[in-house]
Amino acid sequence: MATSNHDTIVKALFECEEIKKGAIRNIKASVASEIAKYCQKDTNALLRSKGTEGNDLTSFRFDRLQIELEQHTPIFWNIVQAAAYNPTQLTNKKKTRDSIKPAVISAAAKIISIYCDDMNLLRQINSVVLKKGGLKKTAFTRMHHTYDAMSYQFTTELLDSFAGRFDTTIKLWKEEWETNDTSPGYTLANDNVDWDIKVRHISAESQNKSEHKINLIAYKNRVSSSHLPENGPQKDIAAVPLSDFLPGIKENIELAENLVVLVGHIWADSIPALSWFKQYLPKSIWHPYKKEMKTKSTRTQLGCYNYDQKCTDDVREFLTEIQGPFIPQIKDDGKIKRVVLRADYLGFERQKKAQSHVQDARTPSDRLEGYISALADFHAQAEWHKVIWHYLYDTKCAKDQGTLYQLRLSSDSRNVTKNPHDNFYAAEDLIEKFTHGYLVAGALHHFGMEDVDKQPTANVLEDKTKHPQDYVRETILSFLNQHVLNPPPSINGENELKCRYCGMAYKQKKRHEEHERKHREALSQPEDPNTFQCKKCGKVYKSVTRLETHAQAHEDSDKPFQEDTDQPDYVLNYTHRALALCCLWLNMEDAVKLGDGERLMLCYKFMYLYCKDVGFHKYAYGLLETVVQAEYLLPPRYANDLVWNRFVNNQGKEDTNLPVDLDVEHCNRPLKTDVHTFRGKLTDKTVQRISRSVEESEKVLLNVDRQIGMKQESGKHDGIDVKGDISKIVKQLQEKKVFAKTPGREHRFIGKISADPLATLDMKDLRTWLKSTIREFKRKSYYNC
Fold it and tell me: Strands across the sheet with 339-343, in order?
């Protein structure tokens, strides 16, 4: 024994049964003593439950508990580890010591909780995990008896404690804003949450019903506007010329400069011979708040409210209820601080109506002046898909090579339907492939290349004195001017009325009508001043343009066919309008990802005209109002908040911003999941508990997932490799020669179309609509407070 080491001595002693039994008794006593001391209240153990108040399950760390066990219960902890680690699993990459450590620590914690019921923190975490997973009440009872979880009643009380702290963060933000004028403030966003409740046995008292709630979330502003004045509009909107509400030459130049960067990067990434373009293009389009937009957003969920967003009275009561706790108090000068409240178009419209209903109330609070209603962007993006579909997508065009529907068939995008709202992301993927395919095919034509692997033979840099950066910009601009950009729309003679027959301008409406009446009499037109009749067949049209097209058809049928070299190429026109629409979509998508609110407003200034042209009147109105809010109606501080604090960044990267209303939709998902997995009668109290506790309960799950190595959904839709689809699209476009002018050709079912989608926009009707809409904005009480 004197020459042996300690392990050999202990092993020899344990061969003696009496010594072994004595050693076991001593070890048991030591373990019992360790556990007893560890469970005393004065140790402040991590596992000790202090009741449902004050527990922060979201910050629990397995490694900190391991350190605590090693310090307070070394013998017990070593025994548990010895029992758990299997030497035969050393080669198993999935069962390393680190990967099974949370399980070993959980086993030790379970044993300790059996000894002392107050040491139950891990059982509380398990209870939250199981409740979020939809475990039934009876299963909770079974798990409680095996000390794997707490009872169902305790779990419910735990969630109630979460719900009781739902407004802790917003109170701090509100107090900061009330006491500190330099506070950046915060933005509110809401969305309707609906679900159906189906009863098992239907009776007169028990019927299926639909529940309608409003989910409210607050976001800390990342861009501070506190240095800007917050009183008075920026301009008197009544004195602004109508042409200022239209995109002009300045906006066209800005759009072109944006597209130079975006199109240049697509060309550089897709065509090896143009890859050098990248070194002369900025990595991304600059805006003044790139640093702020790269930071992670901070949000707090404020729960569901028992109101229906479709009902104006309900929205008014909702705004009244949340005004006291969530809107900063009235300042010394009697003005109430205002918070931007974002919603989809339905919520945007109802909020404004609710404010109009109380415009004659006595106090600013009663008039709901604490809110600035704002249209959110995700639903506007979805509406733009419908605009693209209106102009480019037709299910009759299966054999019209190069059209959106034909390329949808060739890429086998079966999840895309004639209504892009059916699957937003499928429609977005198709637009992306369609846009990239057209741009790459356009580059091949522009540079005289037969294939992406060939070298350019046209529009190359021949002037060696020219700086490559200037060449890159100029050659991309040349392509854009030829195939993408359209001249800006204009309202000629804003104070004049033009004759629709001869173009003569009048300032007096009476003389204008008399002049047009004489034209109608000379042409045997019907009495309705808004219609035009064909002299040959008597068919009536509502616009001169359509009448002229119809008359041209008569002339063509009377003449033998002969090739007209000056005749338009309607396939090339389709190419031009496709790129005009899709490049605007490309600019909008990039603006959202980078959090560039100013560039998004530029896109909206173009987009509302397209919505007006295709008959999407609500979004035309909403997008115009958003632009007018930002440029004229709101004070500088709130206009800046409206423009820049409209995005959310959950990853902290430069290009991971997303619209606020899309983030609200993401937050609705766990809420709906918790509601659907609830076992029992779904009452208003239950819904309130679920909605107010969902944020903290989700944080508990996230905290556990990070420590056990469970992969989280990134929030970004996984993109598949679409290079094959894009290559196929490019080949088809090259076969059709969509960028080469061939007079007289047209897509069979698309027909004769103009290159500019807005060529058919009735400018007289637009002028009338703009005047009435601007006057309506001017009258609104919530813009004059």
Answer: 299-305, 209-220, 186-197, 339-343, 371-375
Give residue-wise pLDDT tens across range 700-755: 999 999 998 887 665 555 556 788 999 999 999 999 999 999 999 999 889 899 99
The Cα–Cα gap between 186 and 636 comes to: 16
Give the closest residue to 573 by CA, choosing from 385, 400, 390, 745: 745
Whole-number Å distance between alpha carbons of 91 and 294: 42
Residue pair 697/301 in contact (Cβ under 8 Å)? The answer is no
Task: Compute the residue count for the chain.
Answer: 785
CA distance linking residue 290 with residue 268, whole number of Å: 24
- Tracing tokens 């239950």 back to the chain, one arrives at 686
In the block, residue with structure tokens 């007018």: 628
pLDDT at 597 over 50: yes
Q: Which residue has the tokens 């419908």?
A: 386
Strands 371-375 and 339-343: parallel
Residues 305-361 have pLDDT tens digits of 999 999 999 999 999 999 999 999 865 655 678 999 999 999 999 999 999 999 999
The pLDDT tens digits for 268-296 are 999 999 999 999 999 999 999 999 999 99
Are the CB atoms for 532 and 543 separated by under 8 Å? yes
Detail the DSSP E strand segments found in 615-690: 647-649, 657-659
The answer to whether the CB of 112 falls within 8 A of the CB of 123 is no
Q: Could you give the residue ranges of the DSSP H alpha helices within 217-376?
A: 249-270, 290-294, 312-326, 345-357
Q: How far apart are CA 11 and CA 17, in angstroms?
A: 12
Task: Identify which has the larger pLDDT, 268 or 133.
Answer: 268
Inter-axis angle of helices 97-115 and 121-132, to 10 degrees?
110
Indicate the residue type of 539. K
**Quick one: pLDDT band at residue 478, thresholds 50, 70, 90?**
very high
**Cα torsion angle, 500, 501, 507, 510, sign:** negative
pLDDT value for 233: 87
- 74-84 vs 62-72: helix crossing angle, rounded to 10: 120
Tokens found for residue 131: 């409740």
Task: Identify the bridge partners of residue 195 per DSSP, sorted by sequence position.
Answer: 211
pLDDT at residue number 546? 59
Dist. CA 368–CA 323, nearest whole Å: 8
Looking at residue 558, its pLDDT comes to 40
Reported as a single tens digit per residue, the pLDDT across 623-657 is 999 999 999 999 999 999 999 999 999 999 999 99
The span from the CA of 366 to the CA of 617, in Å, is 31
Check if the beta carbon of residue 74 is closer than 8 Å to that of residue 37: no
Q: What is the pTM of this model?
A: 0.85
Kindly provide the residue ranges of all beta strands, DSSP E only, lying in 306-420, ordered along the sequence: 339-343, 371-375
Specify the DSSP element, H or E, that contains 215.
strand 209-220
Using an 8 Å Cβ cutoff, are 89 and 100 in contact?
no
Q: Each residue of 431-453: b (16+ CB within 10 Å) or e?
A: bbbbbbbbbbbbbbbbbebeebe
Q: Give the C-alpha separation, 237 to 182, whole Å.
A: 29
Given a contact cutoff of 8 angstroms between Cβ atoms, the answer to whether 664 and 137 are in contact is no
pLDDT for the residue 53: 45
Q: Of 522, 523, 502, which is closest to residue 512 (Cα–Cα)?
A: 502
CB 642 within 8 A of CB 340: yes
Residue 163, CA distances (Å) to 37, 56, 157 in order: 34, 13, 10
662 and 378 Cβ atoms separated by less than 8 Å: yes
Q: Which residues contact residue 257 at a Cβ distance below 8 angstroms, ignoring those fewer than 6 apart?
A: none
Pairing of strands 505-506, 497-498: antiparallel
Name the token pair of 227.
């240095």
Per-residue confidence (pLDDT) for residue 9, from 0 to 100 = 75
